[in-house]
Amino acid sequence: MATPHSAVGSPAAPIAPAAVKILIAGGFGVGKTTLVGSVSEVTPLRTEEYLTRASVGVDDLAGIDQKTTTTVALDFGRITISPELVLYLFGTPGQERFWFMWNDLVNGALGGIVIADTRRLETSFASIDFFESRGIPFVVAINCFHNTNTRTPDEIRAALDLDPQVPMLLGDVRERAFGRDLLLALVDHLMDLAATPAG
User: Fold this and answer.
1) What DSSP string runs through 27-92?
2) Of 28, 30, 127, 149, which residue is 20 to 30 A from 95 by alpha carbon distance?
């Protein structure tokens, strides 16, 4: 005999979606905060502060001299890929003096996105090394919002010394569609790696 608290005949409890943590890294001023803001379905959490005289001689503003703010801790956003999958986005601070925070932010991350600016490709080397040294899969986003990219994808890949299997996409991180494509490329990359037998 069923009791008043019996689950017999009641609808099944909804299954919580899988949560995936994604780390977004790159040099100072490449567009990390912009990417999180363009794709997040919630108002992103930002920890931006105005650049002050104290940063003169510390932060390299070459090529980004119009930049007035900087992330000092992290950016956070969320996007639902499907009812079964939700991505949580964590943007890292770009200045070298804040890199110590990356070690905390990377905990639990399944994958990453490295944003690169062709005007200053060298600012992306540390992010690529960071993911490679920890064995964390990543994709590379070449941010072309400044419309000054004169390099071919092959030239960029060679300059960044990327492994052939690392996906690389060119686009404008201000555009939600490009951010979506980046995230889907990363999810596909993670699934491909998971399906590949360990050798």
Assistant:
1) STTSSHHHHHHHH-SSPPEEEEEE--GGGTTTS--TT-TT--EEEEEEEEEEEEEETTEEEEEEEP
2) 149
